Structure formats: structure tokens, C-alpha cells
Amino acid sequence: MRLPARRWFALACFLAAVPLLFEGLASSSQSEATSVYAVRTTLGPTGPVGSADTNNDNNITASRVTSGSTRVKVVSLSAFIGPTRPGDHFAVAIYADAGGVPGRLLAHSASTAVVGAGWNRAAISPTTLAPNSIYWLAYNSTGSADNLYYARSASGNNVWSGPTAFGSWPNSFPHVAGSGGGSFLIYATLINSHASPIKARATATNKAKIHKPAVPTRGISTTPTRTPADGLQGCRFQRADMPLTVAFCDTFNTPAGTGNRSGDLNGMVWGTSRVNEDVNPGQGIFDAWWPTNRVTCGSSVQTRPEHDVAICNGQMVEATTDGDNFSVLAMYPTQPFDIAGRTGTVVFDVSADSAGPHAAWPSFVYTDQPIPAPYSNHPGIATFARNSFGFSLAASAPCGPGTTGLDEVFGTTDYRPRDLNVVPVDPCLTYRAGALNHFEVRISQDRVEIWGADAGQTRLKELGYIANAGLTLTRGLIWLEDVHYFADKFDSQGTHTFVWDNVGFDGPTLPRDLHLDVNDALTPNGNGSFNLGWYAPDPSNGTPLTLHVPGATHLAQASGALATLNFWPTDTSSLLYRVNGHAWHTLAWPYPDAHTYVWRTIALPLLVSELRAGTNTLDLEATKGGTTVANVDLILIGAQGVPVR
Asked: For residue 243, is the peptide bond before it cis, meaning its omega torsion is within 30 degrees of 0?
């Protein structure tokens, strides 16, 4: 029997849990058959988490909400559920108001398995809500009796029925057995009721603007992929806003290399860069990179760039030998990721078996420009992006052996780095050989949430969140990185292989950049390493460094152009550059600090009018002292058009 008054229980670990916030999604036209909605929001409390309710099983519990000033449709309901037993299920519904209590049933979900403590979502048939009207969001469950939570605020109203068998949703709300103050943590996800899927119509005008070149697409998808029941297969978006529009998903089905620096990755879709702190122009060492042993499909294979990135058994496998130095191997999809006016979600799987911050670890970075090897300030490497957000998965304490978590979390604004304050929630993940960890990163300008699953598992835990993140970018590129810091000094990860899979993100599907590599120099050094880069002199000490960039095409579709590169300056000098023999351009030292003899990353603006189809030449100099350069690329912004679905 439901008691006439509510029993309130204090939360233990769940007071630290943070609800999933759903922000507005600003729409824009996309490629054919892509669903876009003009307005996206929620109705009902999304936090903070309060106390546990009682007697939720086989009993309908509901709390009152009031709709806003416009007509909207409910597409799903989410409830914050506490610890449950295996096999527990829940269901949710929405009722109209009848004089201050629930009345007519409007819609309900199917029985839905509880996937874990925290927010659980269930879809309902799209249901229109009238403006400025009262509705009741209802919940029923089977199994655990005390598994629905209140919002911490004392405001609101709630009611409960007499015993009602789970799976039964009466057309009229059953007898109200009791009522109380406060709101349950149940919210509805809404879309504008007037919005409808938009299709880009092929006209003579937009056919020219949305050019779709023939590129290899096997293993690459821009359609939503749901999780099979048997584990880590396909891009999974457990925390993404619904309805889901997937802008990018690569499952690495087969090798698709195009002969550039990206190895087996599709070079029309991925760019790859490598920097090592081992640079000594006086000794002829320009970004030294060592051959490595890559563990691929159960065998150890000795290889060197660009074959250190491979695809095997439907996964991307890459390895680095750091040569007792700090090194970064970075990979990025050339498809832009946009978070303007919304919270975007990035997903990826990786074998997150880092031995700690003085070993090898995977990292994630989101940058506003396609600059190579973006990371942070470490020995010999200060490749801060202009505007960015990033984190490393290298925590060794307090997680302990066999576990990992967040270590560095940082952002940059106008090349100025800052550490971001992370509120830990459930900070440690287990890793094990032969298994991948699944990660989902929810990013808006104001808030970032980082979620992960233990190795081989699907249940996500929130590692931590950044409130008031203050990110200064809304569109950019995502980077997956293999980072080393003299990884044999205290551990044995100086040569190490990471495995990646199922990389994707949601949001608008934007025109893809055309990324054209200058292949690495690969000149041997006497110590067994290879130079990846070259030396660009100052104007008084020799002829410019001249590099050739093949493959330029679809120039008419490019909205702009960049030359991107890493450089290792000996002075805070300006970079001088020109293309195809046109006039020299100058980029003054852009950084707020004066650190030299370290790697930097930069994007040099180009005039599309100075480029030509086919091979372009790029000349480089530095005004004082010369500089080492590596990872040189020509970027034609948006020139690949919207990807073919």
C-alpha cells in the first residue's frame, strides 16, 4: 500500500550524478533525406538529483508539468532511475489534466529494460501538446520498489495511483491514492510541432554547390547506427539527443588507403600527422620518427610511417615507438563537427590501456581549424590549437592498476591554454587486453560531459563534467591521438599499439574538406629513425623550401583554403609563404608566448584564386633563423561537398 505521506531517503552516490541536459538544436538545411527539426527542448525537471521515492513498482506515479507558449510534440520521456536488479523494466506515459489530477491517457512507451542507474529514455508516439496547458508525466516499473528519484527542488506536484499492474496503462488515470509536493525526475523531449523533415531539392544552383565526388565510402556511414545486443559493433549514440541525425560514422570495415600519410585509412576522409620532440637542425634531424612493432590481428608486425596506421578485422590499429621522447600521432576526419546552438555528441571506441601520464595514452581534441597534431604543452611540443577543447585518458591515480580515467582536460582561446575544472562523478574505467572501451563526449560551448564504459561493456558511466566550459568554437574537427611521454622510463609502453573503432558524431551534415598531403620526407637518420620533415631557411640563408602538393580538384566548390603544418622555430619570427610563384604572404608570430625550440601548429590562409587544379607548389621561409616544418597539407574547405549517403 502507498503510504499517505511520501518517505524521503537521502542519496549516497547519486548526489554526485549529474543529469543529462538537452539544449536547443538550431536547424540548417542538410543533404537529401536528412531529418532536421527547427526547435528542440525539454519539459520537466532535468536535475539536480534529490531523494529516492518509494513503492514505484506496479504503481503509476506522475508529476505535473506546464507546457510553454508554442505547440510542441513529445517524442520521448526520460526518468532518473536508481539501482535496480537484472531484468528490471520501466515504462512511461503522458496524461492530460482533469481538474488538477491526471485524466485521459495521451501516449505511453513500450516496456523498456533499465540499462543502468541514471537517466533512462523510452520513445513514445509523437504527441502534440497545446500551449500553456497542464500535463502529467507518469512512470511505472517492475522489480525494484524504490527506483524513481525526485528533483532536489521542493516545487511541483505529484500523485500516485492504487496498485496498477506493470504494462497496464488505463485510458483514464486510475483512482488517485495520494498526492504530494515536489517533482519527479521525469522529463519529455520535445520538437516543434510544425517542423518536418527537410530534403535538399536538387536544383541547378545547389547541384553546383553540393558537389559529390566519387570517393571510397566503404566502412563509412552517415546514417544512424544502433547498437546490436552483442556488444561493441557500430557507432553507438547512447547519450545523444533524439531524434538522432548522424553526420559521420566510420566503422573501419576494410583498408581504404589512398597512398598519403594516413596509411590504411581513407585519405579522402582522414588526415594523419606525427610529431616527435627529437629535432636538431644542426645535426640534420627534422621530426625524427622510429620504426615500430604494430600488434595487428594477433601478430607483431614491424613497420614505419605511413604503414603504422592499418585496418584489420574491422578495426583501426596504430602504433608508435617514441624513441625515449614525447610524441604525438594524430588522426582526424575531414568532416566538420558543428555544435552551434546545441549539444553535440562524439562517440569512439579505443583500447584505453594507458599505464599513466608518463607512458602512452589515447586523447581526444576538438579544434576550430584542421591544424596537424594539436595537443598541449609538453617537452618539445606546444601544439596549441587556436581554439580547442581536449582531454587525455591517462589517469593512474586514484584509479589504480588495470584502470584509467581523465588526466589532462584543457581548452585554448586564441592560442592561450587553460586547464578546465572537471567535476568527477564516476572517474575510473577498467581496461583489459583485447577489449575496447566505449566513450561518448557531449559538447556544448557551456558544458562538456565525458562518458565511458568499462572494457567490453556497454553501460556508460559519467567520468566527469565541465560546467561553464566557455568554449570559443562552435564548428571544427575532432582528433583522435596516440600520445607518448618517454613511455619506457617508468613503464614498458615506449612501443605501444592502440586499437580504435566506431568513430562518429551527430549534428548537421556539412560539406567535407578536401585534405591534400605532402607525404613525409622519410629520409634516414643514423640512429635508425627517419626524418618526417624538412628545413625551411630564412631569406638570407639559401633558397626557400619548395614542396609539391598533388591532387587539387573541385576548386569552385571550396569556400576557402589553408596551408597547415607543424613548425619548430628557433626565433619568434614570421612565416613567409607563397603558392605557385605568386606574391609572398607573411604570417606574423601569432602566439601570446615566446616559446621557441618546440613544435607549434598553424594554419596559413591561402587565396583560392592562387591555386590550380592538379599539383600546387608551396614555398616556405622564416624571417629569422629558419625553421623545421612537418605534416604539411593543403586544405580546400568544403570542396568535397556533402558526403554521399
From this structure: yes
- How far apart CA 248 and CA 270 sit, in angstroms, is 12
The pLDDT, as a whole number, for residue 192 is: 58
How far apart, in Å, do the first and last CA atoms of the chain sit? 55
Residue type, 561: A
Q: So what's the pLDDT on residue 145? A: 61
Residue 68 has which C-alpha cell? Answer: 510553454
**Pairwise CA distance, residues 360 & 323, whole Å:** 12
What is the phi-psi region of residue 491: left when phi exceeds 0, alpha when psi lies from -120 to 50, beta otherwise? beta
Q: Say if residue 442 is exposed, middle or buried (CB neighbours under 10 Å; 0-12, 13-18, 19+).
A: buried
The pLDDT score that the predictor gives to residue 401 is: 82
Q: Which helix (H) or strand (E) holds 205?
A: helix 204-209
SS3 260: coil
CB 567 within 8 A of CB 629: yes
Residue 304 CA to chain centroid, in angstroms?
28
Distance (Å, rounded) from C-alpha 207 to C-alpha 190?
33
User: What's the full length of the chain, in residues?
Assistant: 645
pLDDT at 508: 95
> How far is 20 from 83, CA to CA, in rounded Å?
18
Q: Strand 49-52 relative to strand 102-108: parallel, antiparallel, unpaired?
A: unpaired
Residue 147 confidence (pLDDT)? 81
How many CB atoms are closer than 10 A to CB 394? 23
Q: Which pTM was predicted?
A: 0.68
Is residue 166 a contact partner of residue 57, using CB atoms and an 8 Å limit? yes
Question: Are the CB atoms for 47 and 19 separated by under 8 Å?
Answer: yes
Predicted confidence at residue 146, as pLDDT, reads 64
Find the radius of gyration of the CA atoms of the chain.
27
CA 611 vs CA 148, 228, 470, 555: distances in Å: 61, 47, 37, 8
Three-class secondary structure of residue 79 per DSSP: strand
Element (H, E) at 206: helix 204-209
Q: Which residue, among 382, 408, 404, 385, has the nearest Cα to 395 in the 3D structure?
A: 404
Q: Give the residue ranges of the chain where pLDDT is below 70.
A: 1-41, 116, 143-146, 154, 192-233, 396-398, 645
> What single-letter amino acid sits at 492?
S
